[in-house]
Each structure stands twice: as structure tokens, then as C-alpha cells.
Amino acid sequence: xxxxLILRQIYxxxxxxxxVLPELIESPLxxxxxxxxxxxxxxxxxxxxxxxxxxxxxxQVDDYQFGGGAGxxxxxxxxxxxxxxxxxxxTYDAIIYTSPDGVRLDQxxxxxxxxxxxxxxxxxxxxxxxxxxxxxxxxxxxxxxDYVLSGGELAAAVIVDxxxxxxxxxxxxxxxxxxxxxxxDLLAPPVYTRPAEWEGKSxxxxxxxxxxxxxxxxxxxxxxxxxxxxxxxxxxxYVHGDHDKINSVENLH
Length: 253
Ligand code: ADE
Hints:
Helices cover 35% and strands 18% of the residues.
């Protein structure tokens, strides 16, 4: 898994995000690491307002659902028009729909997505999107957790952030993504900074020892213990040895 993060060829990863509320996504992707990734030319994010693809006086993007029931449904025509226009310019490696029905986003899926070049994300909104859009265009549905957001925009921002930071060159110290929580199916060990003594609490001696091997061993033990206590599900996965498996980009399209 670690090698895969290094092996990705260095060129730009492009996200096209289709939304009825671009304002919701702009801010999280225009600061800090995402901004730096864009400034370095490693990440491109294009927001497409579905209203621009709607027709009629009111540029309507939603409508009542057939069969009755509360909540509006995203109309198929503006989405299809936007996707087809974009597809004339490039082929997408994945066309994602953000929805609580989707596969749960985890670090493994982020790693796999970070190997792709062109990703389109359709943000669900209102009661959801007309089912025929899902059948016609969507290759992958992603949920960021078992709770319901007001719309898929925040989920799209989470996807771009968690995937974008894995593109080689995005983080200053490229190895740091390798040691993130979850990157080995383990939680990260505790970290400390100065002062070494604070409010009667000391930093563990080993971290001040300068002994690299001992520090590495201590961190690994702490990761294991923290994972065992807080995330027994991940711990089981780790001890059963599938933590080294190579992730594949198959099944994303
Ligand atoms: N839209 C609404 N809730 C969502 C979730 N949990 N994940 C992704 N998209 C969503």
C-alpha cells in the first residue's frame, strides 16, 4: 500500500463537481493543503452549477416525486446535459454520486481514488437524484458515514480533501501521509510537542531519547494498543494480516 502512494505518476488529478450549491464546497477546498495542492498544479477542482444547465424561465433543477411524498427530486435533464458536455472533453475514471446509500468512504477507498486522473462527483441534494441518472451514469456511490447530511456537497468536499492530500507532492513531507491513522489499518500513536513538562505531565522518556529504533517501536506499540482499545474492528483486520494487501483501482468504473 505504501508503495502505491509513491508510484502514482506525477500529474494533475482533476475533480469535476456537479452541484446545486457550489458555495458550500468552495471554502473548504480553497484553504490550507487543498489550496497548496491547486497552487502547485497537482489538483484541479472545477465546480459546475447544475442550474446553469437547466432550461426554462426558472431554471428548475428539482421537481416533485412521482407517486407522491415529501421532498423534491433532482431532475435528470440538467445533470445529463452537464455530464455529457464534460464527457465530450475527457473520459472519467469514476463518476461518483454522494449518497448515504453508497459504499462507506475509508482510507483504502481514498488510496484507490487517489490513483485516478479524472473523477466526476455528482452531489446529491433534496430527496436525491432521479434513479435513471444513477443507472445511466454513476459508477460508484459513496457515503461518508451512516448519518444524513442536508446535501452531498460536504461529502464531496470530504472526498476531495481526503483523496487530494494523498497525491504525491501535495503534502510537504511526503512520507507523512504514510503514517496517518488508518494508512496501515491502525490508528496513529499519540504525539507531543514542547514543553516536555506541562501541568505536571511529562512527555514519554523514549521520545526524548533520540533513539530512532526505540521511538519507532514505541509508536508502533502505541498504535496497536490504541487501535485494540478504540477500534477493535480495525485491530482484528490488522492482526488477521490483510493490512498489506495491494489496493486496486478496479471496480471503480
Ligand atoms: N448525502 C446525505 N448524506 C450523505 C452521506 N452520509 N454521505 C454522502 N452523501 C450524503
